[in-house]
Amino acid sequence: MKLTFLGTGTSQGVPVIACNCSVCLSDNTKDKRLRTSVMITIDGFNYVIDSGPDFRQQMLRENVQDLSAVLFTHEHKDHVAGLDDVRAFNFKYQKAMDVYCDENVQRALYREYPYIFSDVKYPGAPKVNINLIDKNQEFHIGKHAFTPIEVMHYKLPVLGFRIEDLTYITDAKTISPSEIEKMRGTKVLVLNALRIEEHISHFNLEEALQMIDLIKPEKAYLTHVSHLMGRHELVMKQLPDHVSIAYDGLQVELE
Q1: Topology (CATH level 3) of domain 2-253
Q2: pLDDT tens, N- to C-terminus, the chain (255 residues)
């Protein structure tokens, strides 16, 4: 299994428009962050978690030739805004894209993309098959099992996913004990860490490190990072050896 970080930035990305802070002006490519998304490759099948506003750019950068499914964590714009661009895969393979999401995301997609779900199909509109998932039930895509993990993004439920020894969590502020149990034993943990200071709806760095200490993965990666976290190279010096800030394009091989 391979994990590719398509984007590791928060909703505004990094650099932020009109910002002149040291992070946004950095010439280090690891300080350039598209909106958060990952691609998981298993047995030659590609699964993307969240298609944000930079989805097209991410697919082109990684030269993705086929995509088996898109999984959504929640309905915020920085996680769903790129769905229209699955058209390229529709056209190439002459099949609809499988989408996995909960009912909250389904309602948002109907609202944001009425032309996709209209009874009268406009020529060239994307084609998707929505597969509803439940936080309490494991689901399969082909032969691959996915376990949903519910976290709270302030008051909004968000789904993370566990796939074998990988757990991916984004936009979390709190996680209930029962959902934390689903994460136990994971070898690679991806977790959001927005900034140094506390935030109402995201883990800050301290909270993310506390959760990592609780789960005890072999390796942890921080994502959904804002420019307020600081420069990549400086923050890395402050982290434990088994924790890294992810960066766009990073690939991690899992056994």
Answers
A1: Metallo-beta-lactamase; Chain A (3.60.15)
A2: 999 999 999 999 999 999 999 999 999 999 999 999 999 999 999 999 999 999 999 999 999 999 999 999 999 999 999 999 999 999 999 999 999 999 999 999 999 999 999 988 888 999 999 999 999 999 999 999 999 999 999 999 999 999 999 999 999 999 999 999 999 999 999 999 999 999 999 999 999 999 999 999 999 999 999 999 999 999 999 999 999 999 999 999 997
Domain boundaries of the chain, sorted by first residue = 2-253
Residue 179 makes CB contacts below 8 A (sequence gap 6+) with 149, 150, 151
80 burial via Cβ count (<10 Å: 0-12, 13-18, 19+): buried
* pTM recorded for the entire structure: 0.97
